[in-house]
Amino acid sequence: MNIIREAKKEASQIISKAIGINEDIILNNIEYPPKGDLGDLALPLPSVTKNFNVNVTGKGYYIKNIERSGVFINIFLDESKIFTTIFSNFDEKYGIEKSENPKKIVVEHTSANPIHPLHIGHLRNSILGDTLVRLLRARGHDVNSRFYVNDSGRQVAILIYGLSKLNYPEPPSNIKKDEWLGLIYAMTNVIIEIKKITDELKNSGENEYKEKISKRDELVATANELRERNQEYFDILTENIMKDIDPEKEILEIIKKYETGDANTKVIVRKYVSYAIDGFLESLDRLHISFDVFDYESDILWSGEVKQILNIALDSPAKINYKGTWALDLQNFIDDKTREELNIPKDLELPPLVLMRSDGTTLYTLRDVAYTFRKFSDFKADIVINVIAEQQYMPQIQLRASLYILGYPEYARNLLHYSYGMVNLQGMRMSGRLGKYISLDDIYDKVKEVVETKIKEKKGNVENLNEIVNSAIRYAIVSVSANKPISFNISKITNLEENSGPYLQYTYARAYNILSKVNEKLDLSKADLNELSGDKRKILIMISKFPEIFGKAADDMKPEILAIYLRQFSDLFNSWYDKERVLQETDENKRTTRIYLVKGVEGVLRNGLEILGITPLSRM
């Protein structure tokens, strides 16, 4: 039941007959005016015609009046008809309209390297990815959420190298597994870098010597900080790494053994990678985020899928010799028409896609091609969505271009990069390899501490504290357009009185508790439709917009549309309820109308919050 859509169709028919423009063109250009007194809907004439001297009037079932004002045709809706239609058919799933063209969709998100805890950058990826999954499922699509475990890269090999110097210890019970691994990884990496610079100093010129000394001093300062966290581990690692002639050679040997499926190496790597995944899941569970499938990069290597793609690439006419190894020439094999198909800017210089290292081992770029094949084929997906930071813009373009060149144009067209901006942390730069990051757990715990303090100050209820923390974090992420950077401000995101997840939950609890005290059986015929004026009419119009808002948020994959709508809706409801009573209204007919409006508010907020992964709370 999408009343706004039906009203737009009615208006399009009326306006089309009056000005002689195709109905569909008019329908696609009807918008919401900035102010309600300008109409509930409006058509800007310049968007459809150059003839502004037209006279349009008319009525429809949902349309009370149409009038021209300057270059706008303003459309006023019939609040009585809307009220009766909505509440004659109102149910628990109000507004959650299913797509007429459901798809099978894969959403890959988070996919963090299993070497240290998830940090604030992963937080945005995880919440955006999970929210997309929820939005698309609510819209009726068959969605498969996947996490790609990059267990074959250099970073994991560095971690395993460090663990080998510690004689493969088990994580202690008093520290989270991924945090423990992150410390060992950072220590190992810093010690390797210090050793490398120390060795290079022996053959450095004067200017180069000063530069390297300065860099080593910075690393030593970081090393001292890491040593304070576990002196025993650090000293053992330092002793064993410093006496290695060539740590890099040992790391490359670990990579080679794992990629070729050496039995002992497989057991060791998978064991510690699983510890990292355990830590990830523990963190993500606090935000109600889970996955359908975990894909391991190593499995794609061992299965022969990467080799199969490599053979196809080596037979391609686009194969070129690039810097001593093989690559795909994307620049000269993707024409302007194809660029348009694949959403690649016309003038963008496309670097070659390097297929392998000079030693014959494959690179992550080729493995991404193989993994894309798996995502499409495993789930028989119509669309694959990669939730990856904006820094991966070029690799994602290379991926689409490579799929096209290798003979899979449908995969290339239906592979979407859901790009997002980074999260800014004032006064701190993150570096996992140096052990400098603010983990997802750190953020969660800090938000929890602030929320608990604020609730206790207001003498509120803390029994649902974790759900309030979840709402604060999730709303802070999804209420901002993905392509914009976020400055994470804990004080703002925990505001209980405006523009936050807890504020939306508070508003829901307010509506829920009004309804919980209703003792009378509602009778729609008793509603006083003359009550539908001022804020009450605005609330009704906002309720009628919910199906369209939800549909647009899902179809455009823009959860911020829904988040902002829910915030504006909450503001409107709270403003009205602070001025007028509902249950205390003595006039039965007026009271009935107001209770129905609160019922609409409760239903819209409940469904909207659940779609965003936020739990509606009956008490706060």
What does this structure look like?
The chain has 620 residues and is an alpha/beta fold. The protein has 23 helices and 13 strands. A five-stranded parallel sheet has the order 6-5-4-10-11, with helices on both faces. Strands 1-3-2 form a three-stranded antiparallel sheet, with helices on one face. Strands 7-8-9 form a three-stranded antiparallel sheet. The chain is globular, with a radius of gyration of 29 Å. This is Arginine--tRNA ligase. Keywords: Aminoacyl-tRNA synthetase, ATP-binding, Cytoplasm, Ligase, Nucleotide-binding, Protein biosynthesis. One of its GO terms (molecular function) is arginine-tRNA ligase activity.
CATH architecture descriptor of the domain at 440-611: Orthogonal Bundle
| Cα separation of the termini | 32 Å
Strand order of the largest sheet: 6-5-4-10-11
Content-based structural category: alpha/beta
CATH topology of the domain at 440-611: Isoleucyl-tRNA Synthetase, Domain 1
Parts with pLDDT < 50 across at least 5 consecutive residues: none
User: How large is the count of helical segments?
Assistant: 23
Beta-sheet strand percentage? 5-15%
CATH top level of the domain at 440-611 is Mainly Alpha
The major pleated sheet works out as:
5 strands, parallel
Number of strands: 13
Kindly provide the radius of gyration, computed on alpha-carbon positions and rounded to a whole number of angstroms: 29 Å
Shape: globular
CATH superfamily of the domain at 440-611: Isoleucyl-tRNA Synthetase, Domain 1
Main location: cytoplasm
Pfam family, one: tRNA-synt_1d
Catalytic activity: tRNA(Arg) + L-arginine + ATP = L-arginyl-tRNA(Arg) + AMP + diphosphate
Keywords: Aminoacyl-tRNA synthetase, ATP-binding, Cytoplasm, Ligase, Nucleotide-binding, Protein biosynthesis
